[in-house]
Write a structure and sequence with these properties.
Its main location: cytoplasm. With 142 residues, the chain is of the alpha+beta class. It has helices at residues 20-26, 45-56, 63-74, 91-96, 117-129, 131-138; strands spanning 2-9, 15-17, 29-34, 40-44, 77-80, 86-88, 102-109, 111-116. The protein contains 6 helices and 8 strands, in the order E-E-H-E-E-H-H-E-E-H-E-E-H-H.
Amino acid sequence: MFMGEFQHNIDSKGRLIVPARFREGLGDRFIVTKGLDNCLFVYPQHEWAEVEQKLKSLPFTRADARAFVRFFFSGATECEVDKQGRILLPNNLREYAKLDKETVVVGVSTRVEIWSKEEWDRYNAQAEASFEQLAENIVDLL
């Protein structure tokens, strides 16, 4: 399980340090793709396989399903951790998530998310302001 929040900088070559706490669960090779809320989703290979199976079961006759699957898979790339614990994030993913220098790497149960610090701070402030309401809304889902 992934949890916690870590701040790291992207270097001039587009490399990001993967927090040591997450490296063991992610393995040496894992998938990074466009996520929701302008962040990147990072999946270990076994979790990616499960997500892939679920998305493959969506009806391709529905335009919204096709659009989501296209968006999700077209942004996906396999990353490999180098000896310094870094990954190279492709330019298209850095642009999508507005990653420039300061980032926040967040553990979210079965995946990791990579956020620009500015976007994370904005998102987190909104979530904190409505946390009680969010809890009330999802209690029925549990």
